[in-house]
Amino acid sequence: MPTPPARPLLLGSKGCGNAIVEFAFALAGLPLDCEEVDYSPGSPTRERLVSVNPLGQVPALVLPEGQVLTESLAMLHYVDDRAPQAGLVPPPGHAAREAFHRWAVFLVAAVYPTFTYGDDSLKWVPDETGAKQLRESTNRHREALYRQMEAAASSPWFLGDAFSAIDFYLLAMTHWRPGRKWFEANAPRLLAAADRAGALAPVAPVVARHFG
Ligand SMILES: N[C@@H](CCC(=O)N[C@@H](CS)C(=O)NCC(=O)O)C(=O)O
Question: Are 50 and 143 contained in the same domain?
Fold first, then answer.
């Protein structure tokens, strides 16, 4: 096994889900090193990524403890365990805790896969026609999921008075399809929570680096 890094090392790509994890480390004030990789098949850094995460996805986090963490939500819990004062996860007994778990899992288990199957849809079906259909149907499904979240959203944060890591998912995801204009028109509460999270002082430079 390779020597573990002295500080957590995050493999990621500009504008991707690793941004969510970087927001969390920045807000918590925890040290983090970042390594840019390209998950595309045939890229020069694909082999390195797959050696850390056989699924070939970013983010992938190599810990000083010698473990590897995949899955953004697992990483957010890692940060929350070390810096609960950052408020990423409402603590046990908090009124918003169950809602946090529901919607955080909804984001990674329902919304995120619409990108997995839609981004490079030709990977999953045999021809261009099917790939176009799959991209369109996953786009439509994602919009329906966001409408469901908008109906459940509070203000000023998604969970109401309690900021949480859900706002960080929204911050990244509102930069992805269907794009900001769609959120302005169809999911203004989600966009407002995202923008508010992006304005947090430790987070703003990370937003600029990924989405500026
Ligand atoms: N469930 C994973 C999803 C990660 C994911 O889908 N990342 C995208 C980039 S934002 C990716 O690596 N896509 C390439 C692929 O799925 O092959 C998480 O929450 O970390």
Answer: no
CA distance 20 to 81: 16
Whether residues 48 and 137 share a domain: the answer is: no
Peptide bond into 84 cis (omega under 30): no
Atom of ligand 1 nearest to the CA of 70: 20
Q: Is the CB of 112 under 6 A from ligand 1?
A: yes
- 56 CB near ligand 1 (under 6 Å): yes
Residue 83 phi/psi, 5-degree rounding, is -145, 65
Contact between 176 and 14 under an 8 Å Cβ cutoff? The reply is: no
Q: Determine, yes or no, domain membership for 15.
A: yes
Which mutation among 43, 55, 112 tests ligand 1's pocket best, with the greatest number of atoms within 8 A of CB? 112
Clarify whether residues 57 and 106 are in a common domain: no
The length of the chain is 212
Q: Is the CB of 120 under 6 A from ligand 1?
A: no
**Residues 150-204: tens digit of each pLDDT:** 999 999 999 999 999 999 999 999 999 999 999 999 999 999 999 999 999 999 9
Ligand 1 atom, smallest distance to 71 CA: 20
Atom of ligand 1 nearest to the CA of 116: 16
pLDDT tens digits along 68-87: 999 999 999 999 999 999 99
* Domain span including residue 46: 9-86
